[in-house]
Amino acid sequence: MNNNRALLCLEKIGFQLDSKIILDNVTFSLQPSEFKLITGPSGCGKSTLLKIIASLLSPTSGTLFFDGKDYLTLFS
């Protein structure tokens, strides 16, 4: 594995349910052996973001990469 490449990379992730925007332009990366903490008030989209990462929901915009591969096509 290339140590410079992120293990998980989210770029401009968005999620919209009907006309309500839940996530808008979320971008971050996670390097191997790195930990991230996702915090925020109730209803801000934390669980939605984790469901997208777990492939339980599909984002309405943006891209996800796992170890350099398009994460959204790994399970389809």
TrEMBL record:
Cellular component GO terms held in the UniProt record: ATP-binding cassette (ABC) transporter complex
PANTHER family for this protein: ENERGY-COUPLING FACTOR TRANSPORTER ATP-BINDING PROTEIN ECFA2, HEAVY METAL TRANSPORTER
Gene field: ybbL_1
UniProt cross-references to Pfam families, sorted A to Z: ABC_tran
Membrane topology: Peripheral membrane protein
Cellular location(s): Cell membrane
One annotated GO molecular function: ATP binding
Protein name: Putative ABC transporter ATP-binding protein YbbL
Alphabetical keyword list: ATP-binding, Cell membrane, Membrane, Nucleotide-binding, Translocase, Transport
ABC transporter domain: residues covered: 23-71
Superkingdom per UniProt: Bacteria
